[in-house]
Amino acid sequence: MSIKNYKRIFGIVMDSVGTGAAPDAAKFDDIGSDTLGHVGEAYKGKLQIPNLQKLGISNLRETPIEGVAKIDHPIGYYGKMQEISAGKDSMDGHWEMMGLPVEKPLNTFPNGFPDDIIEKLEDFSGRKVIGNRPESGTKIIAELGEQQMKTGDLIVYTSGDSVLQIAAHETVIPLKELYRICEYARTLVNGPEYTVGRIIARPYVGPDKDHFTRTANRHDFTLEPIGKTDLDYLQAAGVHTVGIGKINDIFSGHGIDEGYHNESNMDGMDHVDHVMGEDFTGFAFTNLVDFDAMYGHRRNPIGFGEALMDFDKRLGTVLKNLKDDDLLMITADHGNDPGFKGTDHTRERVPLLVYSPSMTNGGTLGVRKTFADFGATVLDNFNVTGNGVGTGFLEEI
């Protein structure tokens, strides 16, 4: 048995690191998706993630990740979580983790955005909209980026998720102006006619289509949470809450006392290390987005695996720095299988890895029926009452 009440909980979301198709994957045309499985296959047995391995990353799977064997005695507890929210976007996944499942499907735009939205964007910005279709961000920027630089147009695009993305070259449309346009776009899709999960500013730099790169100045303008989340309940109870990465964007700042913007996964881990060095009682919630934005959507399993191995190395430092009254919980918000068709997120179960140095043994947490079990456990630890969604597993570890 471990300590039953921890002073600090560190939750890390490996954005898009799914572990096999969810039971309802057919509804999303995602049967056969398996982010971790296909990354392992791409590495032909050479994927090296020893810290995740000893936490049980392969033990939670029916079939181990190629090259990452199951081990007899994982140091912590392991399992999987499945989503009950209507969508498979980051917002859905994180909100559900914090006790607020998205029950009604948000609007998606497989044929591009309707004329009335586009016309209002053009009138407000004084700029023409180009693109306006579902597309990979890197692809549409490579195709239309040079035109955008010459004309000052706005590249508008979407995906299979409920997102409206606006891309512009940073030297052509300053960040302040791009953010202002995105803030206006947010007002157009808050319902009731159209309800969109996220407006994403996608600035890029580079001299030409062969050298364009999207920058870390991305900003997500998320739908305001439609109810209280576990973060709100924790904050109201005086529990210190920290958001690292796009956590602040996803929750529109609600329920977060201290926030950090990430430039990259490694920058995010620098922030984790920094926060671990602080003396506080509370919950630090981290999102590492590079797996998703840099490799999942771009269907790059080799890059995805490199990002996993880089994270695993930094995870070693986290494990060394954890105190006996700290709890670490690692999971994901959805899948984004780089070995699958298309470029969209994939409906998958996600890993759940739980560890504290005070644990004397490990074991399985099984398959959790909702991501909300994650947040329910945090609430239980700090003796805070939430909205009753999810079943905590504090007594199981």
From TrEMBL:
The keyword Membrane does not apply. GO terms for molecular function: magnesium ion binding; manganese ion binding; phosphopentomutase activity. One of its GO terms (biological process) is nucleotide metabolic process. Signal peptide: none annotated. Its EC number is 5.4.2.7. Mn(2+) 1 binds at residues 15, 333-334. Pathway: Carbohydrate degradation; 2-deoxy-D-ribose 1-phosphate degradation; D-glyceraldehyde 3-phosphate and acetaldehyde from 2-deoxy-alpha-D-ribose 1-phosphate: step 1/2. Its cofactor is Mn(2+). Mn(2+) 2 binds at residues 292, 297, 345. Its main location: cytoplasm. It is found in: Cytoplasm. It holds the Pfam family Metalloenzyme. Keywords: Cytoplasm, Isomerase, Manganese, Metal-binding. Residues 7-384 form the Metalloenzyme domain. Binds 2 manganese ions. It catalyses: 2-deoxy-alpha-D-ribose 1-phosphate = 2-deoxy-D-ribose 5-phosphate; alpha-D-ribose 1-phosphate = D-ribose 5-phosphate. GO terms for cellular component: cytosol. Belongs to the phosphopentomutase family. Isomerase that catalyzes the conversion of deoxy-ribose 1-phosphate (dRib-1-P) and ribose 1-phosphate (Rib-1-P) to deoxy-ribose 5-phosphate (dRib-5-P) and ribose 5-phosphate (Rib-5-P), respectively. This is Phosphopentomutase. It comes from Lentilactobacillus kisonensis DSM 19906 = JCM 15041. The gene is deoB.
